[in-house]
Amino acid sequence: MTDLLPLRAPARADAALLPLLRRFEPAMLLWLALIALLLFLVVTPLFILVRQSFEAPEGAGYTLANYVTAFADRLHLRALGNSLLLGAGVALLAAIFAVPMAWAVARTDMPGKNLTRLLVLGAFVTPPYLGAIGWILLAGPNAGWLNKLWMAVTGAKAGIVNIFTFPGLILAIAAYSYPYIFVFTSAALELVSSEMEDAAHILGAGGWRTTLKVTLPLVWPAILGGLIITFLEAIALFGTPAIIGLPAHINVVTTQLWQFFEFPVQAEVAAAYAMPLLAVTALLFWVQRKSLGRKGYVSLTGKGGERRLIQLGAWRWALLGYTLIVGGISVLLPFAVLLQAAFSRAWGRGMSLANLTLRNFEYVLFVHNTAGQSIVHSFVYAAATASLAILLALAIAYIVSRRLVPMARALAFLCVAPFVIPGIVLAIGFYSAYAAPPVALYGTAALIILAFTTRFLPIAYTSCEAAMRSLNPEMEDAARIVGGGRFIALSRIVMPLLRKSIIAAWILVFIPATRELSAAIFLTAPNTQVMSVVLFDLSSEGNFEYLAALGGVLLVATVILVAVSFRLVGRDFMLRRS
Amino acid sequence: MKRRTFLKGTAAASAAAALAPWARRASAAEEAELYAAAKGEGQVTWYTAHFDTQTAESIGNAFATRYPGIRANVVRTTAQVAFQRLSQDLKTGIAECDVFSSTDLGHYVRLKPMDVFLKYTAPNAAQLLPQFKDIDPDGGYFITSAGLICITYNKDKVKESEAPKNWPDLLDPKWKDQISVGHPGFSGYVGTWVVEMRNLYGWDYFEKLRANEPQVGRSINDTVTMLNSGERSVAAGPEATTLESAARGNPLGVIYPGDGALLMVSPSAVMKNSRRLNAARLFMNFLMSRDASEILVRNFSPAVVPGVGPAPGAKPLAEVKTIRPTAEEITEGIPEVIKRWRDTFGA
Questions:
Q1: What are the tens digits of pLDDT across the range A560-578?
Q2: Contact A481, A465 (CB under 8 A)
Q3: Which domains does chain A have, with CATH numbers?
Q4: Chain B window 77-116: which residues touch A at a Cβ cutoff of 8 Å?
Q5: How far is the C-alpha of B108 from the C-alpha of B90, rounded, in Å?
Q6: Which residues on B lie below 8 Å from A433 (Cβ)?
Q7: Is B190 on the interface with A (CB under 8 A)?
Q8: Phi/psi class of residue B313: alpha, beta or left (left: φ > 0; alpha: ψ in -120 to 50)?
Q9: What are the tens digits of pLDDT across the range B227-277?
């Protein structure tokens, strides 16, 4: 390093610079670039949002009036309360769905693991509002299939389930967000070595006690990360609350926000109204830090460790049954109903041979102007988004966990903050910041990819951070002690060890990016149309048969794509242990 | 097949009408002049919330076919997204949008004082149907799309003779748990309908409707889905989407209420800051052409010029008793009724 110093530098400055430069690593430049990128992606749109919340409507000065308008209304406050309750309910139910499944798949000899992974993948790629429509058809109080079946079997006058209730809303959202917790938890569980469980056994703990007291606590960071993501996703979701919540007279933050954009538009009030969501994110982040505290969750060390599957005996069939129930709720039942519509000339006519047709598929794939192309766009943009977000998140998670720069915590917060900014609000921030010159991204794919990257950075970050936490720094230290620089340590040690987690994180961003709606609605142009927006248009245009057909295409295409790409990299779906 | 023959029929009829002796030479000359000037501009960008995506794209394609050398970029979104984009564009000085078509009259009332619309009366404006003429006395925007809200029902569950005939019939307790409506906070169509019902029957109408526990969706088109699924059997629904779904064979019917179907009108305007003013003018003229109206009718919407239509299964607009609040009642009334709706219905 020292030979880089200018030879004629004054002795004094030399003395001051030397210690700094001695610690200087070329990697620092990269970190600085990352921080600049974060400023571009997160800070600028956020700043615009905060500034807007204080702006007087016609651009005349600053005011607190937006906050008064946003929070003085009893109904607005109730919507806020509903959102928090909804988020908590969804996170809890999603964990109940996911944790036993993840444990069964990762640690036990339960049969049907591939089927389980396929069902989870199916739930994950389903746009939540498509699933919600399926559930309206299943559990609508008057004509829901489940209710009709119940009435036919028991002769009862009324059905038993009603999706238009608060628990119904929670179910319809949790059914499509539990895969986050599943993937986080199962990936972490696969890293826990049986030695720790053996230690518990030796000390006299039984199988269940070991699982509850040793195995699951060890993966608590992963479960907590999943809980936070599902909570945040639930409170930022628009589609499902709009189609299930409103008829049930349940208003939440996002449906309220949407109304601020109806005439007369109150974008400034909307910005103010979105602020508590940011506060909630900050709070959750703080809770996560307190909860994990100084406890150790390192399960990936340089030492060997054997991982054996737990023999469950008859219990494995019970677990499989549970898995199928969850899969039925999230995928099998709703898609049965949707497929009936997709293959119908007129789905209101019910099932009959005369009503069968392939025309809807032909229409969405070949006749509709944008639908076919939008499928390709969705996948390309999602892949670009996932790659960009993971690179960024990985780098920042590394900086934060190894404390390479001051204010690392603030960086971490910036990474998770965008998640709760409702898509449309984020998109408007992006549009006003970058559509116009000098950046001039109007109508380009780059605008969408960058906005998606911001939107899903929290997911990327949360999963990369959990992965980093499981990695013992000793191993890099070892590399560096024997003379390797940080890049060597990163490329030879960290990346290979985390490869599986990185692929998991990539999928975790890729899939929601294919189904992202609220930000896309605002940013797409005629030649950058994406599938979710086409689906939404078909739904709000009442073209239900086409909507169902396109939903089916989306499901099949994603499953095939993910399957093929994992075969290509030599793996099964969803990170099965090789 | 039937539909196709029908379309051929209307095309022939309208071609005959086009040859009518009053085909105005002056306007044809203006059109030719605009086209010549617009060729150099090469394209036109249309922010639109009118129609569904497919219809909007068809209109864009028809324009490009009619005027070779000029491409139409169709940016089809919901009304509030179109408005937000346009507002952002105006704020940041982007002149992307050439022609702006929202379904929300309020957008025009709010934008007009900002002097962003070009005062331009296209030649075809003269042939608009009487009920669509002169929406803006100053000639800043013109009606290019219309729709009706009617009483719609599921034919498998309700006989035509038993279906509601007038709007107050929906208040009959026999429709308890059977009604589907949209939400005024999410749909300008529904908002306008609520304003008009309040004009006619007072807010009491909605207090009584609440007692019948209607299923409140978001968009007015949600009623079509609710009727098809059998979840609900009657609705205050859109004529066009309901007929389109019925044409596919779904068991849906439309009743034109005796006390009046609600007529929704949606304007378009040429943006003053457009960089392609000739193409924009030409496109505006095209929206009020017979060609455009034929596409509307093919997609089950009412035509805005005479001699076209009606849409398959629809009653000719001239024979329908229509009602509609004034522009002022709409822009002032919608925010009020949204508030009252939320108090009455709880969300």
A1: 877 776 666 555 444 444 3
A2: no
A3: 26-292+315-575 (1.10.3720.10)
A4: 77-81, 83-85, 87-89, 91-94, 96, 104, 106-107, 110
A5: 14
A6: none
A7: no
A8: left
A9: 988 889 999 999 999 999 999 888 999 999 999 999 999 999 999 999 999
| Per-residue pLDDT, A118 | 84
- Assess whether the previous peptide bond of A221 is cis (omega < 30° from 0): no
At which residue do the structure tokens 């499901």 appear? A555
Q: Could you tell me how far CA B305 lies from the centroid of its own chain?
A: 14
Q: How far apart are CA B83 and CA A267, in angstroms?
A: 11
User: What is the radius of gyration, based on Cα positions, of chain A?
Assistant: 25
Asked if B2-145+265-309 and B147-262+321-345 have one fold, the answer is yes
pLDDT band, residue A503 (cuts 50/70/90): confident
- Measured between CA atoms, how close is B22 to chain A, in angstroms? 37
Q: Three-state DSSP class for B99?
A: strand
The two structure tokens encoding residue B244: 């389109």
**Does A137 reach chain B within 8 Å, measured CB to CB?**
yes
Is B154 touching A (CB cutoff 8 A)? Answer: yes
What is residue B13's predicted lDDT score, i.e. its pLDDT?
47
Superfamily of domain B147-262+321-345, CATH level 4? Periplasmic binding protein-like II (3.40.190.10)
**Phi then psi dihedrals of residue A396, to 5 deg:** -75, -40
The answer to whether the CB of B89 falls within 8 A of the CB of B61 is no
Nearest to A348 among B76, B185, B228 (CB): B228
- d(CA A373, CA A390) in angstroms, rounded, equals 26
Of B94, B335, B347, the CB nearest to A249: B347
Q: For residues B105 and B192, give the distance between their C-alpha atoms in angstroms, rounded to a whole number.
A: 10
Answer yes or no: is the ipTM higher than 0.85.
no
Cβ-defined contact of B75 to A245 (cutoff 8 Å)? no
B248: chain A residues, CB-CB within 8 Å: 345-346, 545
Cross-chain residue pair B347–A140, CB shorter than 8 Å: no
- Amino acid at site B189: Y
Helix axes A371-401, A445-469, angle to 10 degrees: 40
**CATH code, residues B2-145+265-309:** 3.40.190.10
Task: Classify residue B169 by its DSSP letter.
Answer: G
Find tokens 């496109």 and name the residue: B283
Q: Helix count (H) and strand count (E) of chain A?
A: 29, 0
Contacts of B185 in chain A (CB under 8 A): 259, 262
Tell me: pLDDT of A102 over 70: yes
Helix-helix angle A220-236:A445-469, to 10 degrees: 150
CB < 8 Å to A443, chain B: 96
- Of all residues in chain A, the one with the smallest CA distance to B46 is A526
Of the residues A77, A162, A254, A263, the best mutation for testing chain B's interface (the one with the most B CB atoms within 10 Å of its CB) is A263
Whether A435 and chain B come into contact, CB under 8 Å, resolves to yes
- Smallest CA–CA distance, residue B69 to chain A, in Å, is 18
| Extents of the domains making up chain B | 2-145+265-309, 147-262+321-345
* DSSP-assigned letter for residue B302: P
DSSP secondary-structure letter at A569? T
Return the SS3 of B269: strand
| pLDDT tens-digit readout, A186-208 | 878 877 777 777 777 777 777 77
